[in-house]
Amino acid sequence: MSTSHQPSRRRFLQNVAAAGAATILAPSANRAFGYRSPNDRPVFATIGLRNQGWTITSKSFKFADFAALADADANVLAENVSKTEKAQKKKPDAYKDYRKILDRDDIDAVMIATPDHWHTKIAVEAMLAGKDVYCEKPLTLTIDEGKLIEKVVKQTGRVFQVGTMQRSESQQRFLQAVALVKHGRIGTVKKVTCGINGMIASPVIPVAPVPEQIDWDMWLGPAPKVDYRALPELREGYGGGVPLYSNCHYSFRNWHEYSGGKLTDWGAHHVDIACWALGATDTGPSKITPTKFTLPVEYKDGHPVVNDQYNAATAFEISVAMPNDVEMVIKSEGDNGIMFEGSKGRFFVNRGKIVGKPVEDLADNPLPDNAIEEVYGGPVSANHTANFIEGMNSRKQPISDVWSHNRMLEICHLSNIAMRLDRELKWDPKKREIIGDDQANSFLSRESRKEYSINM
């Protein structure tokens, strides 16, 4: 930030410190609204820059100044340093090791877009270092990681936004969907179906030389130490320039070691909206039943028996028993989006449309004028980062808080555990543990490599 902005920034930090010391952040009832002066631009840094990392960074230039970037891939880091310098007319510092960002007193907040297995360690350490956090979805690799993040948010008083952008963007279709349900336009909700697509299986992926620009040990981080694997064929389009099949860039989503397949990728979006509409953002299911599914490799005791192919489910249909006798179905077949069904009708919503008779009826019987703002908790932010900075200014939680996110993500994690063990799971939403199944409960956490454990 330029010298001329330093007084404003200093006041900003003083106000943040004062508010943070006096506030214990609670779930979404403490939502944030409004900006401080536009001269009070916070200083950000992004950790993890490929694809979504650049997306959230570039969407934030109008609100914040980026002082530093970090990535374990030197080529990705250099490319994004160049693009950031061009966009903001000032070159950010570049680091392979994100901890150098956390050591800096001039950085107010970090944006995290690493692979999922890195999210919790960086987020916790950033909060302990006094940074507010914007972290991409899915927030965690395990259920217990979510509990730890909640604990540290309360302990530190930091503001934390999860990158589930459907809560702020997508032309407000999802907000309208939530409002339709909450205003009784489909009567009593009976069923909600989340279509989240499946994944393709992979061929056998051989051990390959690590690309010279990647620090493979750093990329693996908390995950088990394994060989780099890749086939030479390159991916086209989104994620282009990387191998079509690998255990690294882009394809990490297909491995349970680093992610949770489509259940935590698209599930983190659509299950979130479904839970929001159902009023289930502070509770959870009672039962998870995998009615049909396909795992691409053989499993034993919940673990894949081979390490040279993708191991996340390629196809699935999961039945989830939600409060008030609502059935949630999460499936890989059909249109990507959410179908709400009730005693008076049904409608479907995704990023491109919202359709059904309850939607058509709005022409003659519109929702109340404040229905969307009532759902959102105030004026709707068209940009997810803007809502995050509103929270930084007011020291109140943004729209995608960690509590509601973790509650819905527990459904996705439990679905994966149920498929890996091939059995129904009963869940206690108060204790947040699986009932009467010690083996299944062992999957609620995961041991990190010692040298990459969380620094508390």
Automatic annotation (TrEMBL):
<dbReference type="InterPro" id="IPR019546">
    <property type="entry name" value="TAT_signal_bac_arc"/>
</dbReference>
<dbReference type="GO" id="GO:0000166">
    <property type="term" value="F:nucleotide binding"/>
</dbReference>
<feature type="domain" description="Gfo/Idh/MocA-like oxidoreductase bacterial type C-terminal">
    <location>
        <begin position="205"/>
        <end position="453"/>
    </location>
</feature>
<dbReference type="InterPro" id="IPR000683">
    <property type="entry name" value="Gfo/Idh/MocA-like_OxRdtase_N"/>
</dbReference>
<protein>
    <submittedName>
        <fullName>Inositol 2-dehydrogenase</fullName>
        <ecNumber>1.1.1.18</ecNumber>
    </submittedName>
</protein>
<dbReference type="InterPro" id="IPR050463">
    <property type="entry name" value="Gfo/Idh/MocA_oxidrdct_glycsds"/>
</dbReference>
<dbReference type="Pfam" id="PF19051">
    <property type="entry name" value="GFO_IDH_MocA_C2"/>
</dbReference>
<feature type="domain" description="Gfo/Idh/MocA-like oxidoreductase N-terminal">
    <location>
        <begin position="76"/>
        <end position="163"/>
    </location>
</feature>
<dbReference type="Pfam" id="PF01408">
    <property type="entry name" value="GFO_IDH_MocA"/>
</dbReference>
<keyword id="KW-0560">Oxidoreductase</keyword>
<dbReference type="InterPro" id="IPR043906">
    <property type="entry name" value="Gfo/Idh/MocA_OxRdtase_bact_C"/>
</dbReference>
<dbReference type="InterPro" id="IPR006311">
    <property type="entry name" value="TAT_signal"/>
</dbReference>
<dbReference type="InterPro" id="IPR036291">
    <property type="entry name" value="NAD(P)-bd_dom_sf"/>
</dbReference>
<dbReference type="GO" id="GO:0050112">
    <property type="term" value="F:inositol 2-dehydrogenase (NAD+) activity"/>
</dbReference>
